[in-house]
Write a structure and sequence with these properties.
The complex is a heterodimer. Chain A is an all-alpha fold. Helices cover 79% and strands 0% of the residues of chain A. Chain A has one domain. The longest helix of chain A is centred in the C-terminal third of the chain and has 30 residues, at 125-154. The two termini of chain A are 19 Å apart. By secondary structure, chain B is of the alpha+beta class. Chain B has a six-stranded antiparallel barrel. Chain B has a six-stranded antiparallel beta barrel with strand order 6-7-8-11-10-9. Chain B starts with 9 loop residues before the first helix and ends in a 7-residue tail after the last helix. The chains are: A mainly alpha, B alpha+beta.
Chain lengths: 166, 290
Amino acid sequence: MKALLYFIVIVGVVPIQSVLLSHISLWDVKPDLGFVAACLVGLIAGELDGLLVGLALGWAMSLFSAQDLMSGTIIKGAVGFVAGLAGRQVVYLSPVVFVAGLLVVSCLVGLITPFVLKLSVQQDWWWAVWTIVLPQACLDAVIGGAIYWLMRSRMNIEQLMSESRM
Amino acid sequence: MRMVNLRAPYSARRVVFVLAVILVLGFLLLPSQLQSGFQYIGSPLGWIISWPLQVVAGIHDRIADVWGRYVALQGVEEENQQLKRELDLLKEQNGQLREASVATERLSALLEFKKQALPASVAAQVIGRDTGNWYKTIILNKGASDGLQSDQGVITPAGVVGRVVKTTASTAVVLLVTDPNNAIAGLIQRTRDEGIVEGTTQGQARLKYIPLLSNARPGDHVVTSGLVGGFPRGIPIGTIIRIDKEEEALFQSAELSPEIDPNRVEEVLVIQSPSLPTEGERLGVPKLKP
């Protein structure tokens, strides 16, 4: 059941990300649903699930992007793993704190990415921060927060988190 | 709602965790050539994902079509009047162009210019955009099984779109000409000066390494030079809108307005033939007799 759910997430995120999200992009920047999904899975289901789903999501998304497979796969895997470790340290997580956490982690990942990708000299660090990292972090936080809030209103997140850590 | 707990036992989880860590370390340590193996292994996954991708793209196209035909009709009357005026103008121009066409046909036959047809190409549809924000790419509905490979050129009748950078069995990723990480050999049509066309962060393109003595000016057309890459010579890339000449620089550069609007590209041609005809073959230069 869990594996099927993860498979649907992995197979479903790519079409939504590449076809539909380009229409709701702000300043030509769209949220990274793979990042949000890896965070949520890591946080709720633990670091191992977060790592594996993150790796698979990063790999699948890299197949449909010019980004190299290694960076995409490892970054998303690491995000899922770190989210799992962070989830282990908290008992209760409000949507506001989750949004703030996503904002910070998305910014950190965005700041590392230009160095990993070895982009063109035109795409310097400051350009990346102002045109991609900050807008994307805001969008990730809003989308992730909305999904988290929706999930909290439908299911007992704390119970799921505690079950995954047993 | 309570999820069913189907978690593996602790020891199995540990084994999976160790395998995942080995995978990550493998990725970090493997040379980039070997990592192309992972791209190859990913082809079946890419094939599976391409199905929902094409379904979503199809639904999206239908909705866009309905929206365009029935909902977004504001200002159509005004647009219609303007189009009628343009049509009258174009009819007049069409008459003149027919005359020019007859003359061109005559001259073409005279110069035996018939071998100028494009090399083998595959038509493909755009079904998506890059899954990230760092690159400007489009996703095509044709892939390795249709003969597409990395570095093949992608064009429309209007001009250059970009080049293929990645393929799965049924899809291909095309890095657009407006991406700063792209580089295409270009030629200023009027002055015959060559350079490299790169994208810019503003969504335009730039022709770099133009000789200082070149008299290129705004309005000049830039086409592919055909020297390297998957493009034959003479495919339009863009029009020069500004020349930048810095003091003590060895070269000048020019900002280009691309011929294509990457956000509106729907169908493209992928140039497949690896061996493009040389300029001599295309123009039918007589061969030397032994």
